TrEMBL record, chain A:
InterPro entries registered for this protein in UniProt: Beta-grasp_dom_sf, Mopterin_synth/thiamin_S_b, SAMP1_3, Sulfur_Carrier/Prot_Modifier, ThiS/MoaD-like
Coiled-coil intervals, chain numbering: none
Protein name from the UniProt record: Molybdopterin synthase sulfur carrier subunit
Automatic annotation (TrEMBL), chain B:
Extent of the signal sequence: none
Organism name: Actinoplanes nipponensis
GO BP annotation list: xyloglucan metabolic process
Keyword Hydrolase: yes
Record keywords: Hydrolase
GO MF term list: hydrolase activity
Entries under InterPro entries matching the protein: WD40/YVTN_repeat-like_dom_sf, Xyloglucanase_GH74
Name by which UniProt lists this protein: Glycosyl hydrolase
Keyword Transmembrane helix applies: no
SUPFAM superfamilies cross-referenced by the UniProt entry: Oligoxyloglucan reducing end-specific cellobiohydrolase
CDD domains in the cross-refs: Sialidase_non-viral
Superkingdom per UniProt: Bacteria
Length: 91, 358
């Protein structure tokens, strides 16, 4: 079962949790779809309404930046660790 | 009675309150620290005042939060309150304007240029489709600050009439509740285009409605200050006695016809106050004549800009006027601009201010 690590800035949108266990595996897009069902406010911080990852949000699947490994189609094996991190940006 | 001044900044929303008829102000700490607040509204139509804030994270995108207890707590729905439908092929980048219209209706102007409408007091919004589908839209451009509907003015006596302004694109109106929209820019110059008098494409920075005559509006343009007395059919220059015709905000008195305030800047290429003097200009005759108001404002050379929504009036008597600068200073006048005092200093860049009695 994949685990999603939630950054501190978004934990209020995940019911205060630092780790979320999700049932979906397969692709990152499928995992985020499940997050959208269960924690919709968290999901919309990560993706915009077109379904695209927000520009300054990085998502790593087992330590690999998803933008270099297929984007939302990145494979997510059962037991994978998905880390959501704000990128180095902002003023 | 308490006067509330909501100050939206680049890094949070600050609420200032005065319980002594605006003689002194208490400024609280930041709500939404680190978030940009480009739009804020104080909705006093209902039994309790509601605050609405456009809250934007540089990482996690824009949203709208509301508070019915003057900022003690904030609520935001699970689903995005503002989102383009899938077939629009666009994404809300920034909320530039939140305008309560009464009876639970709230309008939001966003970037890219679009208008959203709420019927539940500003919790959730739907795209105003006819403006988004307007055949002119592909030709609307973007100013330096982005492409956005930044002004929304519902008609006070006729809910089917709304005027919006966008940069660039200009002024558009509906008279049928948003089902159709027409440009209303006749007389407003677009000096930056080959045809300086186009039907649309102007870079209108802000429009204000007259406090007593709902057919009279005032517009601060990207060079040019204008008035219409026929609801936007035609515009005439009122920049004649201003020291410069560039600037961002224009604000109208809440009740008295013809009284308006502006903060002129030298030019597009020199965005600083004329003679580096911090001065608000006021007209009491609908822009025919303007007078500088500077008592109590800084006397040192002043380089700051007042952004388009960073000036407002309250609804008290006499009217209060407020403005904030990109250097995080906020000034208030409780006598319609005759004299000024500092409300706050050293805040982040001030993006918007709104005031009301709560």
């Amino acid at each position: 079962m994949p685990t999603v690590l939630v950054p501190g800035m978004l934990r209020a949108d995940a019911g205060g949790a630092a780790h979320l266990e999700v049932g979906e595996s397969g692709t990152l897009g499928a995992v985020l779809d499940e997050i959208g069902q269960r924690w919709p406010r968290l999901e919309r911080r990560i993706r915009d309404e077109s379904g695209a990852l927000r520009r300054y949000v990085n998502v790593y699947v087992d330590g690999e930046d998803c933008r270099r490994s297929g984007g939302l189609a990145t494979p997510v094996p059962a037991g994978a660790e998905i880390q959501v991190l704000p990128s180095v940006a902002g003023g | 009675m308490t006067e509330l001044l909501a100050i939206g900044t680049k890094k949070g929303l600050f609420l200032a309150t005065s319980d002594d008829d605006r003689r002194s102000w208490k400024v609280g700490s930041a709500h939404f620290p680190g978030m940009s607040i480009y739009a804020v509204a104080i909705d006093t139509h209902g039994p309790t005042p509601r605050l609405l804030a456009g809250v934007e994270s540089s990482h996690f995108g824009p949203s709208v939060s509301i508070s019915d207890d003057l900022g003690a707590t904030w609520q935001e729905p699970d689903a995005a309150p503002l989102a383009f439908p899938a077939d629009a092929g666009a994404v809300v980048e920034r909320v530039w304007q939140i305008t309560p219209a009464g009876s639970g209706v709230v309008y939001a102007g966003v970037q890219p240029s679009a208008l959203f409408r709420s019927e539940d007091g500003g919790r959730t919004y739907e795209l105003v489709r006819a403006l988004w589908d307007h055949p002119h839209r592909p030709e609307w451009g973007a100013g330096f600050g982005g492409q956005a509907v930044h002004t929304v003015l519902p008609h006070p006596g006729d809910p089917s009439r709304v005027l919006v302004a966008m940069s660039t694109g200009g002024v558009y109106r509906t008279t049928d509740g948003g089902a159709s929209w027409s440009p209303a820019n006749t007389g407003i110059k677009a000096y930056f285009l080959p045809d300086p008098w186009p039907e649309f494409g102007q870079c209108v920075h802000k429009v204000a409605r007259d406090g007593a005559d709902p057919e009279t509006y005032y517009a601060q343009n990207h060079h040019g200050v204008y008035r219409t007395v026929d609801g936007g059919d035609t515009w005439q220059s009122i920049a004649g006695t201003l020291p410069a015709d560039f600037g961002f905000p224009i604000v109208a008195h809440p009740r008295r016809s013809g009284t308006i305030w502006s903060f002129p800047l030298v030019s597009d290429g020199q965005r600083e106050p004329v003679e580096l003097r911090c001065r608000v200009f006021r007209s009491t005759d609908a822009g025919e004549h303007w007078q500088p108001m500077q008592a109590g404002l800084p006397e040192e050379p002043f380089y700051q800009v007042v952004l388009r929504d960073a000036m407002c009036a309250d609804d008290a008597e006499p009217a209060g006027v407020y403005f904030g600068t990109r250097s995080g200073e906020v000034f208030a006048s409780r006598d319609e601009g005759e004299s000024w005092s500092s409300v706050a200093a050293h805040l982040p860049d001030v993006l918007c201010v709104r005031a009301g009695t709560v």
